[in-house]
Fold each of these.
Amino acid sequence: MNEYKVLTMFDPQAARAVIERIEAIKPTAQKQWGEMNVAQMLAHCSAANEMASGFVKRPRRFIGRILGPFFKKILTNNAPYGQGNPTDPAFVMKDEKDFETEKKKLLGLVKGFAERGVSGASKHSHPFFGKISQEEWGVAQWKHLDHHLRQFSA
């Protein structure tokens, strides 16, 4: 059995591997779980990256203020994100998306996030988990991207 090893998008090798996985994904990729199609997943990951980059600030959610501190370890622990975890409504993609447009956007965001490094990550609180460090944003982004790339067998 392979042990899951958590990486960070601030590690150049880990970032390059994620970028290669995104580059390889096809519009015909089929989901292994969840509701989104592959183009919606790419748009969802872009929205999350915009938040992690500090380009977009999302307000704290009431439920996150209560439960976030109890679940914060999920962001950076050595376990993959579970299938079927709830998604913040701001990140749910229901409308149709253009695959090539979304893929290009996500690649640009991911490359920029990795290149800016730790100091370029958001200084804002996470809407559910609350205050997290810039280093934690890097790990959370890696785990989130890995989760959704595995969702589409990439």
Amino acid sequence: MDWKTQTRIHVRFVDVDLLGHVNNAKYVTYLEEARVVYFRQFPELDFTKPDYVLGNSVILASLKLDYRSPTYLNETLVIGLGATELRRSSFTLEYTVEEEKTKRLVANASTVMVYFDYRAQKSCEIPETLRRRFEEVEGRKFG
């Protein structure tokens, strides 16, 4: 898929297990790093800003990850991602993970993110302004 948001991740020694390939748990961290890059396009959700005040934001509700081929030390991964569905209070992000040089598919993933009121500790409806931001970032309308 032609993702508008992509993140490059270089595989480090600490990521590799005794069998010589990236440990399966590291992919969850790689996806998280890609989400941080994605959310920087949403000023209202960019929790990496020093002046960010926790209020309504997103929380991870579900993760599905399918491994397609192993990754090795010193390879570079390209993670493409984007929103594929917006619901009342949640949205789905889809991911592809490829090895940069060979374009080998390493993994596919999807996460369901919930728009969440951290003060009240409950989900809340995604506001119209945020829905429009998704459309701007993705370059398409959501139904």
Amino acid sequence: MIGYAAPYTEAELEDIERDLDICNRVFVYGTLQDKQCNSGLLSASDKLSATTTQDGFALGDVGFPYAFHSSVVPDEYKKLLFPVKGEVYKMDSMFTFLQLDGLEGYPSHYNRRVIRTATGMTAWMYMNDDWASASMCNACKLEKGVWVWSKY
């Protein structure tokens, strides 16, 4: 285990290490993308590809994007489910994973799940599991059946 100071407990750090062992890639679709305001968190990580998700998500904009997994989208809004355009990075270290969790407010603000990209690659993706948050969102841009966060 690498040395990392509080606020993480030993058990939490073990969970992060386990999750990194499960998958060391992350799919980003908003401010973490290349040349966006939070992209510096991934500066030591390798950008593997620009791609889309394989599954559909609802995507909204509150100044940063909220992706909603299909499992939290009510049936009457399932028509909003489309792939999301983003980038996949190979995380360079557990420290990067901890920084991403901190930025995304995992697990209280965003949740993260392993998803499959259109190219078949697996990666962690941060998403909002609270559909009630969708009421605060502006629309994102839908281009040829793919959600694109409109701030770039």
Amino acid sequence: MREKLAAMLTMQDEMNTKVHPEWKKQGFGWYRAIWTECAELMDHYGWKWWKKQDPDFEQVKLELIDIWHFGMSILLLSGKSVDELTLAMDADLDSPKAEGGFREAVETFACDTLSTKSFNVARFAAVMKAAGMSCDDLYLGYVGKNVLNFFRQDHGYKEGSYIKQWNGREDNEHLVELIQTLNPNCDDFKDQLYAGLKTKYTELNA
């Protein structure tokens, strides 16, 4: 898992650098992005007692992957080496700080994020555990979303010209379908995924 963590940290640094070459000096509110995503995550799980709501765990997991992006960005600002970070992250993922059920775990994690403006991996792991999400799920989902984020940037996301709805469906949905057709253990998995996205984007938005 440490190799996968190191790979994800490297990929996140590359993504942030693509958005802004000097991203570490910008003072971006990564913690704010995290607690806002927590609210979206809770909506997908359901919290309204006055209506029937069934948890949408696929969407919950996608929100957790987004939070992971922001959390790693905070960790990369710590000044610690990738080796130091992966050692600590690996230990925390193996020791989730459970706080009741899913909703309670999300609230505890969000409160910790707001009060410290940092990223508590062990509390994040507790939310993952409550959602039934494994570390392998996190890795595969992260790599997929990272490739999609690069694809978006390469096709006008920052300038506002990117088309997010492909033939009536969000790009995230097409991403999930493509991942299911590929072998994530292949050395060129990222390249195959990017190529697949490009083909679909071109065909469906011609």
